[in-house]
Amino acid sequence: MKLIILLPFFVSLTILSTCTDIPRSLIINANIVTEKGKIFHDKAILIENQLIKEIDSQSDLMKKYKNLLVIDIKHRWLYPGFSDAHLHILSTGRWLSQPDLAKARSVSQIQQILKDYIKRNPSQQWIIGRGWDQNNWETKKFPNKTTLDEISKTKPILLYRVDGHAVWVNSKVLEIAGIDKSTPDPEGGKILRLKDGTPSGVLIDKATDLITKYIPEEDPATKEEYIKRALQYFSSMGLTEVHDAYLDVSLIPLFRKLERRNELPLRVYSMVGNESSPEDLKKFMQGNKPIIPDKTGFLTIRTIKTFADGALGSRGALLFEPYEDEPSSRGLSLIAHRDLLEICNTAKETGYQVATHAIGDSACYFVLKTFIESAGENTKKLRWRIEHSQILFPQKRKFLINGETIYLTPFEAFARFGIISSMQPVHCISDMPWVPARIGKKRARYSYAWKTLISNGAIIPAGTDCPVEPADPILNFYAAVTRKDTSGKPQKGWFPEEKVDRLTSLKMLTTWPAYASFKEDYKGKIKPGYLADFTVLDKNILDCPEEEILKTRVEMTIVGGKIIYSTKAP
Questions:
Q1: What structural domains does the chain harbor?
Q2: Assign residue 47 a region: left if phi > 0, alpha if psi is -120 to 50, beta otherwise?
Q3: Model pTM greater than 0.85?
Q4: In this predicted structure, what is the pLDDT of residue 568?
């Protein structure tokens, strides 16, 4: 007996999740798009135990095998499963549950959002939101506590900036944390101040630790709900795997429990982080073996996450030269050379991958140099990653390799030593209106320079940094090939010489994230022996008109041959 699943009928995620344990399934009526851009209209895909077993004609496979679950794609476009190489699961779950400030274009709009939220949630003790960005306001200046005091002087209000590297709080939070005029800036952080020296209510990078430690701890059930909500959201965006770019050690048992219960709908590749204690990261690696499942496993924990600097939007990115719009600042350094080197050396000994956040040109050089100092030519095997690598000014700089001094541009260093540049194309089209004012046109030219990196031989797995941006692989694809905003501007793209072709952009969503997670031999391609992870779209994004890319809809998400998301067909 055949079980037919037809796209024209909406089926809830819960029902779809029960369609398990059928030994073989068959995908029919699909326009199959391979990682090389080749298209098959007349082939079916046989799936067994989460893997692609055969690709052949539909009639031949149905004759050859009986008792199949048949998944009818209805002539939609089936791609290798899309991955997001950098996002934040728990933070996304919170973002989906808290006030979203991303669309606010003024302080007054944020005030109204908060008033409405408090009215709907009168018992909420702390008001926590995310997404504000002063660069999107008419007055592009950091806000202060006064406007939040107008909302409430008794309830603590804490609002994360869109990048998560700054917080904006009211006076009540400063009072709870004991932060006043005499509180010094912590190392790696900055407390913005009013003219009289009192805290303004905005704290950047490690200064946020002075405040966030007072936020009431969420109970395990709430965290589990956030994680599940985020994973459902990612499924609806067509994602079959996500690289979680910061996993607190305390959450590892929860993720393992979800995996044991088969409650991870898509694959999770996690990076363990601890911003405040490099020593604790070393102890973690020495006391815990990497979690590396077989090819059909859903949870991998084999990466250590560190931070070299802050974010460009809050002027925390570490630069060689001062900020154009704040000449007194070059950004913030968040880790000492000795600490990063010791983490790298420990990672080599214990089998962990290292992924380091670096945005500014000085931070990127510092991390490249430290990686090479630790591992030399072995960096290619280790697949260490720089997360973001946004500003890479092409000046040749000194590197020491096996006692020999060599001079390379950062683009050459990424390629020669096989260091992975994990980038977020969507950041480019969000940030381009204000980047030249922040760092000047000369440095802006080499911001988000993915084409130059790729031309030198580097690979770029693409992420969104959700909840900084929506976890939308189609928007990422569009950003990489157009470098235009969602209204199609500028007409030729922002620094169009950095655009890539569509097939390269597809690699950024498929084969390159697979390589960055050591899965290139069984993920990211549509061929026998590879995971049956697919993203089904209503368009061929490789050749549809450019203006149609953003209108593309995810019709279905399939992981291991199991439908985890589906929607109505038109």
A1: 3-81+529-566 (2.30.40.10), 94-212 (3.10.310.70), 220-516 (3.20.20.140)
A2: beta
A3: yes
A4: 64
Q: Which residue type, as a one-letter code, is found at position 386? A: I
Q: What contacts 14, CB < 8 A, 6 or more positions away?
A: none
254 Cβ neighbours under 8 A, 6+ residues apart: 220, 223, 224, 227
Could you tell me which of 533, 74, 131, 71 has the C-alpha nearest to residue 297?
533
d(Cα 472, Cα 475) in Å, to the nearest integer? 5
Distance in angstroms (rounded) separating the CA atoms of residues 419 and 398:
17
- Output the six-digit token pair for 92: 């996304």
pLDDT in tens, 236-269: 999 999 999 999 999 999 999 999 999 999 999 9
Smallest CA-to-CA distance from 268 within 276, 278, 257 is with 257
Of 523, 496, 515, 391, residue with least CA distance to 458: 515
For residue 448, the 8-state DSSP code is: S
- Chain center to CA of 30: 29
Residue 141 burial (C-beta neighbours within 10 Å; 0-12, 13-18, 19+): exposed
* For residues 146-172, average pLDDT: 93
What phi and psi values does residue 532 have, to the nearest 5 degrees? Answer: -85, 60
Asked whether the beta carbons of 103 and 130 are under 8 A apart, the reply is no
Q: Nearest Cα to 45, choosing from 19, 9, 69?
A: 69
For residue 18, name the pLDDT band (cuts at 50, 70, 90). Answer: very low
Burial grade of 191 (CB within 10 A; 0-12, 13-18, 19 or more): buried
The Cα–Cα gap between 404 and 319 comes to 26
Residue 5 has pLDDT above 70, yes or no: no
Q: Which residue has the tokens 């500003």?
A: 391
Q: Pull the structure tokens for residue 206.
A: 């490690």
Q: Which two tokens stand for residue 474?
A: 């189609």
CB 90 within 8 A of CB 223: yes
d(CA 525, CA 508): 13
Rounded to an integer, what distance in angstroms lies between the CA atom of residue 549 and that of residue 488?
11
In contact, 231 and 266? CB cutoff 8 Å:
yes
Residue 178: DSSP 8-state: T
Q: How far is CA 251 from CA 89, 194, 255, 256, 357, in A?
A: 11, 38, 6, 9, 21
C-beta of residue 266 within 8 angstroms of C-beta of residue 234? yes
Choice among 103-107, 195-199, 475-479 with the minimum mean pLDDT: 103-107
Strands 385-388 and 353-358: parallel
Q: 70, 563 in Cβ contact below 8 A?
A: no
What DSSP line would sit under 348-359, residue for residue?
HHHT-EEEEEE-
In this structure, are residues 410 and 399 in contact, taking their beta carbons and an 8 Å threshold? Answer: no
Q: What is the dihedral sign for C-alpha 130, 134, 136, 138?
A: positive
Kindly tell me if the per-residue pLDDT of 1 is higher than 50.
no
